[in-house]
Write a structure and sequence with these properties.
Length: 197
């Protein structure tokens, strides 16, 4: 696979949860409940600025990813996903959460030889897989994407949210099978099949 293990964890997290870019990049360990296998997602509403928090059941694949991340967690930073980078302004090496991942995905795509995509498109990809392979209706897709209005979900599809378990379980199974296949063949096949971008 073109991605490093850490990059692979981040991409799979987006593909399984369908999370928005900022929701995952700002994820903190306080949002993860390993004991009850539940995770929280925080969304800031564009109109009011109000933060809405939803809670979701954790499929096995995501649990494995988060447990792996927890073992290598940063000693002081609270973030699930962090990296070491060269700060051009301060001219020093720093460790912090990811901020802008345009170059991140661009490098991975170039290395894998696939069309460029951004993280928000992974949310669309997860929705497409649920609709086409999981046979999920509009109501289930709306709950999975956490849209207030069904109209928004229609664009994508062309409390404890127990109603999203079937969706995340399906995506986890889907990607586990795809990753198993990629050990024998190129991961380029699954990406091109859904034409991200």
């Amino acid at each position: 696979m073109a991605a490093t293990p850490d990059q692979k964890d981040l991409i799979l997290t987006y593909l399984v949860t369908g999370g928005r870019k900022s929701e995952i990049l700002k994820w903190e360990w306080s949002d993860i409940d390993f004991k009850n296998k539940i995770y929280a997602l925080h969304t800031r509403k564009s109109g009011s600025g109000e933060v809405k928090t939803t809670y979701h059941e954790m499929p096995a694949l995501l649990c494995d990813i988060l447990e792996r991340r927890f073992k290598k967690r940063h000693p002081t930073l609270p973030y699930v996903f962090w990296h070491k980078f060269w700060d051009r302004k301060k001219k020093e090496w720093r460790e912090d959460r990811y901020q802008n991942l345009n170059r991140f995905t661009e490098r991975i795509c170039k290395k894998a030889g696939v069309p460029k995509f951004n993280l928000h498109q992974l949310r669309h990809l997860a929705t497409a897989i649920l609709k086409e392979r999981g046979d999920m209706g509009l109501a289930k897709l709306q709950r999975f994407l956490r849209h207030d209005h069904q109209k928004t979900t229609e664009i994508y599809a062309g409390h404890l949210e127990t109603g999203t378990k079937a969706q995340t379980d399906f995506l986890a199974d889907f990607w586990e099978k795809k990753l198993g296949e990629s050990d024998k063949t190129s991961t380029k096949t699954s990406t091109e099949q859904y034409k991200i971008g």
